[in-house]
Amino acid sequence: MRFTKMQGIGNDYVYVDCFSQPVPADPADLARRIADRHFGVGGDGLILICPSQVAAARMRMFNADGSESEMCGNGIRCVAKYVFDHGIASDRRLKIETGAGVLTLDLEVAGGKVQRVRVDMGEPILEPAKIPTTLSGERIVNVELPLFSRMPKPKWFDQAGLDPRVTCVSMGNPHAVFYCRAVKHVPLAEIGPVIEHDTAFPKRINAHFVEVHSAGEVTMRTWERGSGITLACGTGASAVCVAGVLTGRSERKILAHLPGGDLELEWGLDNHVAMTGAAAEVFSGEFE
Q1: For 109-127, what is each residue's pLDDT tens digit?
Q2: Mind spelling out the 3-state secondary structure of 88-154?
Q3: Residue 18 designated active-site
Q4: Where is average pLDDT lowest: 70-74, 207-211, 264-268?
Q5: Catalytic one among 78, 168, 233, 241?
Q6: Domains of the chain
Q7: Is 168 a catalytic residue?
């Protein structure tokens, strides 16, 4: 099976072109094997680039643990780059079908290759039942997470200056956003899986910790559902943009610094979130 390794600001996946070869029989198992960084190719998961009846291509995304997710903001930029660079489509405005719907992407091309992509991430979902979360309220904005009241307060809470209140947003997949004074002090490997599997989130959740520098600039770190610590999360950065407005911490347009690079976000007055960032092809090969 031929594959291509791609990354969007460090959020790396193994991509399989299902236009030129069959869809893998068991993509969940393949994702677990191929994403293994010691015995496989290595990556945050597997993305299949498939034909679509309603768009230039259909994207199916599997986390490193084999679970299928609805969408990946960094992944979809790479799908658009692959589709354009490999001649599957030639338009500089593409539609890509995902588990979260059909999204529109605008390509920035130089030397015949896509360098950056602007994605219309669609409208944020704020109704608790649709995120989903069992936390109560019309919207989950600055709501105390019961998890933190149940557990003993660890030392890192004060080091990070953590606000234990959560703001929940779905961008086609679920996100929990927390704010703190110093994001570097958050032990992601320790607290990330606890939040992901908390009973307040029946379909698990992506957890983000955010440090606000100004109304237009933030730094964030992410624990991704099914993949663990990742260098970037595009849907998560979009959720952070929305959460910042809802909580009054940041403006509708922000620059988000992630461990793998920067993303530009804007929650427009049309209620759509736009995300702009880089996409890169790393290498191609064959996997037995």
Answers
A1: 999 999 999 999 999 999 9
A2: CCCCCEEEEEECCEEEEEEEEEECCEEEEEEEECCCCECCHHHCCCCCCCCCCCCEECHHHHHCCCC
A3: no
A4: 70-74
A5: 233
A6: 2-120+276-283 (3.10.310.10), 128-275 (3.10.310.10)
A7: no
